[in-house]
Amino acid sequence: MRTLPRAIVRRTGVVTVGERRPSPPRRRGNGNGDGGVIGVAEERRERGFPIGLKTVVALCAVAVVLGLAAGGWWVVQSPYFEIATVKVEGTDRVAPEDIATVSGLAGQSMFRADLGKAQAGIMALPLVKDVQIERKWPRQVRIVVAERQPWGAWVQSGVSYTIDRDGVVLGAFPAPDGGPVISSAEAGSPRAGDRVDYQAVDAAAEIYEKLPQQLNTQVTQVAFAAGKGVQVTTADGQTALLGDSSSIAYKLAVWAAIAKKSEERGLAYNTIDLRFGNRPVVQ
Q1: DSSP label at 76?
Q2: Residue that is last in its domain, among 92, 117, 147
Q3: 3-state SS class at 5
Q4: Can you give the residue range of the structural domain that contains 135?
Q5: The CATH number of the domain where 98 resides is what?
């Protein structure tokens, strides 16, 4: 087979040896005998490139996410966001230092501090009725305490204990002047935080509120005696047996009606038994 000599082509003064002309665009048939020109971009897609625009965007997104995650981890772990100040407000009888210590929040992370657990610990204190805790960025926690307020006295085993309206024993310090005095025949000594008989407290509260209006006298003591229930003593020396703590308003109304009739007839009595509803007994 003869080898053809390499052609030398002269074009506009430029000499090229064996130069190849660009191949015409490939065509793709459409089934009807007609061909379509395949563009450069499509041809490149068919050849396949290892890294495309979508891949670059995806890699950038992953890098951003990883960067944010690393930054977030650093922020959470940073000592800059440790709780340095626990500010306590609303206390009168409870020391703010005790509230802060019980909360256990000092030194914790602002992000990870368990405020619910801290609230439960503070609520367990006898003199605390309610508490609210909030974060004050970047390094402070604010605790607002609502203390239980002295309401009356609960006398048991010869000792007077101050209680609040819910019947929670606050301690053995003097009760407010003019507050309800409830005497219990129970044995033992309640401790701060204990709850006394709530029915006794509710009955006493109703008696102290309504009896002065209906009988024009003051209550000096409400007692709870075994077998007799509620016993009321007034400032004018009368004693009333009311039985259990139910229907207090009705029993007081019956007492007021008897007191009015007794005054109209000039009758005197020291004790009235209202334990049997509409069949009162006076002595």
Answers
A1: H
A2: 147
A3: coil
A4: 79-147
A5: 3.10.20.310
